[in-house]
Design a protein that fits this description.
This protein has 9 helices and 9 strands. The protein is of the alpha+beta class. The chain folds into 2 domains: about 60 residues, Winged helix-like DNA-binding domain superfamily/Winged helix DNA-binding domain (Arc Repressor Mutant, subunit A, Orthogonal Bundle); about 170 residues, Beta-Lactamase (2-Layer Sandwich). A 6-stranded antiparallel sheet has the order 6-5-4-9-8-7. A 3-stranded antiparallel sheet has the order 1-3-2. Helix 6 crosses helix 8. The protein starts with 9 loop residues before the first helix and ends with a helix. About 25% of the residues are buried. It holds the Pfam family HTH_IclR. Keywords: DNA-binding, Transcription, Transcription regulation.
C-alpha cells in the first residue's frame, strides 16, 4: 500500500530529500549536484542548504561542498536503540548454550531497566528472574550492571537517586566500585545478586558509538568451578564479539 503524500510540506520534503542524498558511498554533496538532482533554482538550493546548516545537520567542508555534521551521530545512536537484534542473537545464544552447557541470554536496556530479549535454555533446570519481556533493575546481575556501567556519571547518579527503596550508602559505594571495574575490564560476573545460588557472567555487545546490549550465561553456582567459570567467560566474550561482527556485516 502506497503512503499518501503529505500536503503543504513541499519545502520540508525537499530539504529532507537533499539530506537523504548523503550515504556511505556519497559522503559529500556539492551545490551543483543539489541543483542537478532536484532541478531547483540556485536561490532555492542555498535556502534548503542553509536550513540544514542552521539545524546543524550538515556543514560546509569547502566552498560549495557539504558533509553531514556530527549531530547526525546522535540520530544514528537513537536509531540503534530501536533495533533489538533478537533474531540475530538467537543462533549465537543457541551455539553458546551448546558450547558451555548452560543457559544463555541476550539483554538490552529499555529506558532505565534491563530486559531479556532472547534466551537459549539448557537441559539443566534453573529458575531465573531474567525471562523474555521481564523488566529488571540495572543494579543487580552481571548483564544489567554492564548496561548501567555505560551510563554517564550524572545520568547514573540520577538513576541511583530515584531508586525505591534507596540503596544504603555502603551498597551504593560497592556498586559504584563494581561499575568502575566493569568499565575497565569490559566484563562482569555476579553471584546470588538476582537469584539465590545463581552465578552469571556477561560481556557487552557494541555497535560504533553505542552499547547495544549484553550476552550472558547463568548457571547454578555449585555447578561451575573456577576453571569452568573462566571457560564460560571466554565463550561469552567470543559470543558477544560474534554478534558484533554479525551486526556490523548487516549494516
Amino acid at each position: 500500500m502506497a503512503i499518501q503524500r503529505t500536503k503543504g510540506v513541499d519545502s520540508a520534503r525537499r530539504a529532507l530529500q537533499i539530506l537523504l542524498q548523503f550515504s556511505e558511498s556519497k559522503p559529500e554533496l556539492t551545490i551543483d549536484e543539489v541543483l542537478e538532482l532536484h532541478e531547483i533554482s540556485v536561490p532555492s538550493a542555498y535556502r534548503y542548504i542553509s536550513l540544514l546548516r542552521e539545524l546543524q545537520l550538515i556543514e560546509e567542508r569547502s566552498k560549495g561542498v557539504f558533509v553531514l555534521s556530527p549531530q547526525i551521530i546522535k540520530l544514528a545512536q537513537a536509531a540503534e536503540t530501536t533495533l533489538d537484534y533478537r533474531v540475530e542473537a538467537q543462533p549465537i545464544l543457541d551455539a553458546l548454550r551448546d558450547r558451555v552447557g548452560e543457559t544463555a541470554l541476550y539483554l538490552r536496556r529499555v529506558n532505565d531497566a534491563a530486559v531479556c530479549l532472547a534466551i537459549a535454555e539448557s537441559d539443566h533446570a534453573i529458575s531465573i528472574s531474567f525471562q523474555p519481556g521481564h523488566l529488571m533493575p540495572l543494579v543487580a546481575g552481571a548483564g544489567a550492571k554492564i548496561l548501567l556501567a555505560a551510563y554517564a556519571d550524572a545520568k547514573r547518579a540520577r538513576y541511583l537517586d530515584r531508586l525505591q527503596p534507596p540503596l544504603p550508602a555502603a551498597a551504593r559505594e560497592r556498586l559504584l566500585g563494581d561499575l568502575q571495574r566493569i568499565r575497565n575490564e569490559g566484563y562482569a560476573e555476579s553471584e546470588g545478586e538476582v537469584d539465590e545460588g545463581v552465578w552469571a557472567c556477561a560481556a557487552p555487545v557494541h555497535a560504533p558509538g553505542a552499547l547495544l546490549g549484553t550476552i550472558s550465561v547463568v548457571a547454578p553456582a555449585y555447578r561451575v568451578s573456577a576453571e569452568k567459570r573462566a571457560e564460560i567467560g571466554s565463550a561469552v566474550r567470543a559470543a558477544a564479539h560474534d554478534l558484533e561482527e554479525l551486526i556490523a556485516g548487516d549494516s
